[in-house]
Amino acid sequence: MIERVAIILAAGQSTRMNTKMPKVLHEVCGRPMLEWVLEACRNVGVQKHIVVVGYGKEQIVERFIGDGDVEFVEQTEQKGTGHAVMCCREQLEGFSGQTLILCGDAPLIRTETVKVLIEKHIQEKSAVTLATAVMSDPTGYGRIVRDGYGNIQGIIEHNDCNKEQRAICEINPGYFCFQTPLLLEALDKIKPNNVKNEYYLTDALHILLADGHKATAVTAVAEEDAMGVNNRMQLSVVGKIMQQRIQEKLMNAGVTIADPPNTWIDARVQIGQDTVIEPFTCIRGAVKIGSNCRIGPFAYLHEGACVVDGSQVGVFQELK
Fold first, then answer.
1. Which end of the chain is more exposed for a tag (fewer CB within 10 A), N or C?
2. Domains of the chain (ranges plus CATH)?
3. How sure is the predictor about 315, in pLDDT bands with cuts at 50, 70 and 90?
């Protein structure tokens, strides 16, 4: 029996990316952004993923149609995050479990953070729980408003904030967990009463609070993890952060990376213990490297390459 589903918002066009490709298909360390979000959901036991598509929907469907746990819902008009979730009503009808709602353009999401969100939701028996972040520069993000006791009172979108609210540094990065029947009730009451004339998902929280239900906010998202991708510069920054995570994981597993800033390793690469990766090496695709190997410097390994234990790929070598 399915206890938890995830709705992943992936319908936006993102004009700031200046791209003909859907934003969520842009790669971070060899994997589409959307794939990183799906992986985090799968790691916490989500068995059904509803991906809301719009711009470039055919490309997204073609890329993920083979994933048996993914279902696609089209948002034909871009009327906000609340409207995107409204489009999923048919898929949620009759479901009494939890619904996670996440953004498809936030690949730095961590499995551990989603676990904390779910555990807090269960522990507090809340109608809705969200994971928040504290940002040194909160510009552009919805602000978390709390009372004197620390209880969440609401979320104010950046464009709707007054001067005092814009000074709040705790923000909403878009990690929600709802009790599904209450989410559906709240969706029926959302109105586009805001600057953009859109249906905000955050209004569902306000509605649940007004109806006497419990809402919880847990500060669990690291500042760097809250970064979404809205332009090519942010895509580059996110890629560097993810590359550091990939290399740290490999080094913790017994791989030596002599010069991390001057090495690039795809997320799909497998490397055995006591292998040394020399500087200016690029390993792209689902490459397998055994134990006790030495790769580089200035080596380039392509998709599908397989290096057996004890091998050496030397200076300026390219392996396909």
1. N
2. 4-226 (3.90.550.10), 253-319 (2.160.10.10)
3. confident
